[in-house]
Amino acid sequence: MFSSRYITKYFVFLIFILSDLTAQDIETDYVVVVDAGHGGKDPGNRGNGYFEKNIALKIALYLGEFLSKNENIKVVYTRTDDRFIDLNTRAKIANNANADLFLSIHCDAHNSDAYGAGTFVLGLHANERNFKIAQKENSVIFLEENYEQNYGGFDPNNPESVISLVLMQEEYLDQSIVVANHIQDFFVKDLNRKDRKVKQAGFLVLRNTYMPSVLIEAGFLTNKREGKYLNSMKGQKEVAFSISRAVNKYISSLDNKKVNSESLEKNKSYNPIFSFKIQIAASKNSLETKPYNFNGLKEISKMKSNGLYRYYYGQTNNYKSALLLLKRAKRFGYKSSFISVFKDNKLYSLKKYLDEYE
To answer: What pLDDT sits at residue 36?
Structure first.
């Protein structure tokens, strides 16, 4: 299906990406949780006699291996062997790891000869097909003890139940869509897969994660040709590698510190340079900007003004990236932290910035 030189070709490309990421000052240990769907007593779909749980696990392990080649990424798995893990626990693993991204790996099934790869974020079902996919993945809760209490009466068979799910992930939806689009783009460009687009559906596994989250349907096991490909080591590595490229691109896009001087020179009008930091504390005392002084947060800077030392977490030239930094600071315990705007390295009003530039 694909050139035998595919992996070699893109390993070279990955090295190029990673060197570029290292050159950019992205926070060390950007945490990615890789979730292999199903497992143990839950086999997933059995299209053409395959076990979705086994294929999802192998893709997840390869994905973690590729991502770990980027020294700025820390990979956490929800499972590394054939065991059953309930959906709530998968989310708890991600939240306890203070993850920045959650990826859940699955394989699709259909009663037709459908094929292609798709990505999903949490949202209202756009059509009956999306509901059926979510219904299939959510039905695993019936294998769990006390599922009625654990999921607040959620009914996988009732489309109205999904409305409560959507609100849980609403603040991360935009970034989830960005990640999903990158994954979908690389599936098409790298592997010439049929593009089944980014869709929204009510997946329970995405409900309680406090970070951008994407569910990936790597292909259809019920399609004879695609099922054989996904069950092969070659297919599993290629799928995992394309996802890793997408994740690296997404992380790279979060760090927008480099200013394009050429474009500024071409623009005859004055173009101010804005940057954003998260103020997490202020004190009369001067502290070393070491992680152990700031609940483990890295990339801490300080500035003295009006007799106080102000401590800041992170820096970016992108307001949406600043919102992600703010959420991360709050997850690390800094509930009163806020975004500080700098215009040409001088403090600037956030309200004024939003009114004039956003």
So the answer is: 97
* Cα separation, 79 vs 34, whole angstroms: 9
Residue 18: pLDDT over 60: no
Strands laid side by side in the 308-316 sheet: 300-305, 308-316, 274-283, 338-343, 346-348
C-alpha span between 330 and 162 (Å, rounded) = 27
Q: Which residues on adjacent β-strands are paired with residue 312?
A: 279, 301
Residues 6+ apart with CB under 8 A from 301: 277, 289, 311, 312, 315
Report whether pLDDT(233) > 50.
yes
Q: Exposed/middle/buried for 280, CB within 10 Å: 0-12, 13-18, 19+?
A: buried
- CB distance 94 to 211 below 8 Å: yes
Give the separation between CA 203 and CA 124, rounded to whole angstroms.
10
> pTM of this prediction?
0.59
Distance CA 355, CA 225 (A): 54
325-348 b/e (C-beta count within 10 Å ≥ 16 → b): bbbbbbbbebeebebbbbeeeeeb
